Amino acid sequence: MKHHLSTLSVLHYVYGVIVCLGGFALLTLVFAGSFLNSSWFLQQGGKAPPVWLGSFLHILGWGLFVLVEIQGILNLISAGKIDKRTGRTFSQVVAALNCLNIPFGIGLGIFTFVVLGDKEVRAEYGLVV
Asked: Measured between alpha carbons, how far is residue 28 from residues 10, 22, 50, 68, 74 in Å?
């Protein structure tokens, strides 16, 4: 099972980068909210959306962006800790948070729990078996 630790580390790195890149897609909500509140959009004829809609999209976009980026960064930190054989509990907490994402997060979370729960791996982390 010890050889699975390097695979697990790489998977956390890859998943962290993918999640962080996906977070940037949420910035489209921020741009949409800013566009709806822009003076140019309001000067164009036609029926304008409610005033609160642009602000709501702007705040929602930034909030989701921050949450997704935090999750991606936590995965990158977890990958580094797995490489150094430290922070086993931290990696398990990150794995639990990954389980909230369907389907890849669940797969990575379960694989993390299986690998980090093995006796050989626990000994590698310096824990009493």
From this structure: 29, 11, 19, 14, 23
Question: What type of residue is 79?
Answer: A
Pairwise CA distance, residues 60 & 78, whole Å: 27
Report the C-alpha gap between 97 and 75 in whole angstroms: 10
pTM (global) more than 0.90: no
pLDDT single digits (tens) 54-87: 889 999 999 999 999 999 999 999 999 999 999 9
Smallest CA-to-CA distance from 33 within 67, 69, 72, 65 is with: 65
Q: How far apart are the first and last CA of the chain?
A: 14
Confidence class of residue 127 from pLDDT cuts 50, 70 and 90? Answer: confident
* Residue 50 CA neighbour count, 13 Å, CB half: 5
